[in-house]
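Re: that chain you flagged

S.,

Sorry for the slow reply, it's been a week of failed gels. I finally had a moment to sit down with the sequence you sent. For the record, here it is as I used it:
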Amino acid sequence: MYISEIFNKKSNYSNELEEKVFSYLHKLNIEYQGVTNDVSEAMSECEEISKVLGEEIRKTVFLCNRQKTQYYLVVMPANKRFDTKTFAKNMECARVSFASEDDMINILGVSYGNASVMSIFNDTNKIVQVVLDKEVASNDFFACNTGISTTHIKFKTSDLIDKYLVDLDHTPKIIEL
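Prediction finished late last night. Pasting the structure tokens below so you have them in one place:
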């Protein structure tokens, strides 16, 4: 798998969301390190990227309730298994399932394999609850894709929680998964 050298500034973008994300990071004065890479469609492919960035790329799942009135973007460690029963219990909500790719495209502006907390930028109707696993939230650094699986970044977790998500009016809920 091709992985570029680490960069601290990006000026050529793969799509509109990526351009918005990087512009927003600059606007909020969030320092980051990033790489471009071949398409990574599975968490196992992200292991090499994690080694280069020096931080684990986090797993993201997009869920909804049966009525499709509540959506959840869940961010967790790559090796942690997601259990819907545990999630529903800890969130005190009805049982959830994986959201459709159509919902992901319509709400987050990304397709399967590209979901990321960065894509919350597209949730302009504020219908998605961001949920961070306690382990992710307590780590010093955070790494993910930028809404496209060919670019990954690493930055301070505190910047994700206290700047990026808060500024987008998506204060995350932190739970044990």
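What I noticed first: DSSP finds six helices and eight strands in the chain.

Talk soon,
D.
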